[in-house]
Amino acid sequence: KKLVATAGIVVESFKPGVLAGWGLGYEDLLAVQPTLVLTSITPFGQNGPYADYEGSELIYYGMGGPMLGNGTADREPLKLGGYMQMYQTGNVAALATLAAHMVAEEQGEPSHVDISGFEVGLTSPDRRTTFLVNYAFNGESSVRGDMLGTILPNGAFPTDDGYVQIMITQAWLPRMLATVQDPDMNAYFGEVAANPALFPRIETKDALDAGMYPWLLSHTKEEVMEQGQANKWPVTPINSPAEVIHNKHFIERGFFHPVDYPAVGSVTHMGAPFRVDAGWDITQAPKLGADTDAVLGSL
Fold first, then answer.
1. Which homologous superfamily is 147-238 in?
2. In 12-25, which positions are buried (b, 16+ CB within 10 angstroms) versus exposed (e)?
3. 3-class state of residue 207 by DSSP
4. From first to last of its 299 residues, what are the pLDDT tens digits of the chain?
5. Which of 111, 194, 257, 286 could join 100 via S-S bond, C-beta 3.0 to 4.6 A?
């Protein structure tokens, strides 16, 4: 409580009721810091029938996110790699906390910010919101493996020196055709333009593959990106960590910074994803517990 008396924000991720059981509930903390912002991050929020349930990236993505739409229709749904829902939960918590802190500073009003990872998934811009709106207006649930999604070349594709990520819609086909410049593919889609009923056929995918793969494999991923971007076709390289560090755009922006560590020497660190006029000094993060004595000694 002595720490809270000097704090504007407290962030915690215990199960609902744990802090109150320790005598550190929201009302208890307001007694020592009347304008406190307490942010509680849990899988399902502070109340409701799921409040005590455990959560994970897979649960957030399956129950709250767009996992239903990933994969093919005859197989189980798939989760995207990494921890996208966890990261988004942290982003939402940070935004909500800062907003509540501004209210506390300007109006002197405290806040208990209740963040549910499940609900963050439900409001995710990664298709889940679209799925819910679609159901609300027409009563239809989105499905996996529709014919359009399997025909168009969306996803990772090989090049001469690696892979690129391709995004395409039917409306963007002219951009792809202008980039690849394959006579046979152009001729086929000339027929499709005259008779759109030809599009949802396996022959369409065969024509795309026959024109796309030779072109991709004869160019580097940087060349594929540059030629695609010139025609407003969104194609980007899939880079390794080493390639990202040596990327010409990040170098010119000064995004990466060397930081010296006593034990290991110079280590390349990412900078902030934004710029401020005065600039920020990039330094090493403190070791775990490095400031504990100083903080406790000040109480």
1. formyl-coa transferase, domain 3 (3.30.1540.10)
2. eeeebeebeeeebe
3. helix
4. 999 999 999 999 999 999 999 999 999 999 999 999 999 999 999 999 999 999 999 998 888 878 888 877 788 888 888 898 899 999 999 999 999 999 999 999 999 999 999 999 888 777 777 788 888 898 887 777 554 456 788 889 999 999 999 988 888 989 999 999 999 999 999 998 888 888 888 888 889 999 999 999 999 999 999 999 999 999 999 999 999 999 999 999 989 988 888 888 898 888 888 888 877 777 777 888 989 998 888 88
5. 111
